[in-house]
Amino acid sequence: MKKRLLMGFFTIYLLILLSFNCFHVDASLFSGKTKGSYNERPFTMVWLSDPQYYAESYPQIYDCLGNWFVKNYKRNSFGYLIVSGDIVNNASHVNQWEVASRNFHKLDNENVPYGVLAGNHDVMMNGLNYSVFKSYFGTSRYINKSWYGGGMMIIAIITT
Predict the structure, then answer these.
(1) Helix (H, G, I), strand (E, B), or coil: what is residue 38?
(2) pTM over 0.85, yes/no
(3) Rounded to an integer, what distance in angstroms lies between the CA atom of residue 63 and that of residue 82?
(4) Of 51, 54, 58, 146, which alpha carbon lies 20 to 30 A from 67's?
(5) 8-13 contact pairs (CB < 8 A, 24+)
(6) ∠ CA 73-74-75, rounded to 5°
(7) In terms of C-beta density within 10 A (0-12 exposed, 13-18 middle, 19 or more buried), how is residue 158 classed?
(8) Distance from CA of residue 125 to its chain's centroid?
(9) 86 close to 51: Cβ distance less than 8 angstroms
C-alpha cells in the first residue's frame, strides 16, 4: 500500500513538473529546411521514459498518462511526445503490452504525434527479440500518420 501511494504521488509530481518545465525546440533545427519554411513558433516536446512498472503493476496510472497526453496535446501544451523505452517490464507478458497499447491508441485516435524507442525490457525474451515490440509498435501502427517520418534500423550492442 505504501509503495502504491508513493508511486501515485511521484506520478502526480512528474505530471506537474512536466506541465511547468517542458523545454522548447525550434523544429527547423532538425528538419534540414530553412527556418522560414516553417511556422517559426517553437513547440514543446514531452519525454516519457520507463513506464514499464505502470504496465506491470499500476495500469490505472498508465491510463491517466494516456488521458493526460491527449488532453494536453489538444490544449497545445506540447507538439511531440518522445517515449524512450521500457514500455513494458516483461516483454513476454501480453497483458502488459495490452495496457501500454490501449493507452497509445488514445494518442493514435487523437492524432498525437509521438515516437517510441524499444528499451531492454521491451526486447529481452530468450535473448534479443524485437518481434513482440514490432507487433505492437512497429511501422504498421504509424504508416498512415501524417507526422510519421519513417522507422529506424535497429542495432543493438550487447556488452558483458
Answers:
(1) coil
(2) no
(3) 17
(4) 146
(5) 8/58, 8/61, 11/61, 11/64, 11/65
(6) 90
(7) exposed
(8) 21
(9) yes
